[in-house]
Amino acid sequence: MREVANRAGMNHATLHYYFAGKEALIDGVLHYIVEELSIGHDASAKTEACSPRQRIADYFSQILRQMRDQPEMFIVLTEINARSLRDSGVRSVMARHDRGWNRFLSAVLKEGIQKKEFQAALDPDVFAKVIISFLRGLYLTYAGRAEDMERAVHSFMRVLS
């Protein structure tokens, strides 16, 4: 915490006033990124009247746009995710945020199955996790190569049909 405060050019007591410890700070960073990038929230609020398939397509388009426009956010997410592999406190914070992201995607997928837009055999909860894994892999593998990311997303969308 002291090192973070020094790098931010602030007194460490001020940082502790807002964040009780490392996990609270990481939770705050993730909360900011979730809000900024609309990951895990109803990012398709503007398209609620659209079909579930279109909502997922719009969501992927939004993520691609954000990867191009705000790559630093995805670098931070990648670093936090890597840290969560060796730090149980960070892993707990990540898991909480992932559950919200999973709920959002799962709800859209369930609706799409009910409306026969997605395959009936699709398990919405499992496939929501597959989408999350795909997106994490996408920004790790294709960072800075928007054209390659777009081709991968379009191929992925065909799997849902």
Which structural class best describes the helix and strand composition?
mainly alpha
N to C succession of SSEs: HHHHHHHH
**Largest beta-sheet details:** none
**Shape field:** elongated
Can you name the CATH architecture?
Orthogonal Bundle
What number is the mean pLDDT?
85
Total strands: the figure is 0
Fourth-tier CATH superfamily name: Tetracycline Repressor, domain 2
Low-confidence stretches: 40-44
CATH topology heading: Tetracycline Repressor, domain 2
How many helical elements? 8
What is the number of independent domains?
1
The CATH class, by name, is Mainly Alpha
The share of residues in extended strands comes to: under 5%
Percent range for helical residues? over 70%
- Which radius of gyration do the C-alpha atoms yield? 17 Å
First and last CA, distance: 47 Å
